[in-house]
């Protein structure tokens, strides 16, 4: 992507009680909608918040960027765009040009940024601001054939997540994995996406779970269909072109349940 991953030292992982929650997703937008309306809303908020600066102090490029940032945050549950997403959406020549204009917007008091984060933009004229939480990124998970997990573990990396995706959970009560493969495309999980997993050792029939295969030392993301009478579990992909993986129950251990998806940028 331009993906949603920010690498920053942080270790965390905790076992928590099961809390039923429908998976949520963030789908980064590649273009802003109705920029004139977005600009008017930004101006109105500046006026209501007592802001002294006027939108006409901005260059055309800076105004387009500000409109896009506001629309992106509105469309993505409070998650701000990355520099690369701004560059691609507005067809700006380079990320350095984006960074230069973001610095200008910051100097003029429209935004603030947090150093060292990829999604670090906050609109200062919005009282709620834009805030993200850091969830530990533990490695890569297969949404295709199972792949070795230990080889790709990155236990000190994190991914930035909007609080709305976690609900009442804390950032250290979920973990993130990067998806490799397309076996879950009908569940709207594609190659390169980041999945948020709530640690738990059991799952209901049909739930999407991260499964550790003991003998193979591999991890995969599939729908869970156990059959205790046969001592087997069918790990079902969400892709009609792919068949299920059938394993002994003693060989398949549930690591956690899917609670959210962060889309990879196109």
Describe the model.
The protein is of the alpha+beta class. The chain has five helices and 14 strands. Strands 1, 2, 5, 6, 7, 8, 9, 10, 11, 12, 13 and 14 form a twelve-stranded mixed sheet that branches. A two-stranded antiparallel sheet has the order 3-4. A hairpin with a 7-residue loop joins β3 and β4. α1 packs across α2, α2 (60-75) crosses α4 and α3 (83-89) packs across α4. It is elongated.
Keywords:
14 strands, 12-stranded mixed sheet, two-stranded antiparallel ribbon, 266 residues, alpha+beta, 5 helices
Helix content: 10-25%
Order of helices and strands: EEHHHHEEEEEHEEEEEEE
Poorly predicted regions are 1-54, 145-155
- 3D shape: elongated
Distance between the termini: 7 Å
Radius of gyration over alpha carbons? Answer: 21 Å
Q: Label the structural class.
A: alpha+beta
List the total number of helices: 5
Beta-strand percent range: 25-35%
Largest sheet, strands/sense/barrel: 12 strands, mixed
| Strand segment tally | 14
- Quick check: average pLDDT? 74
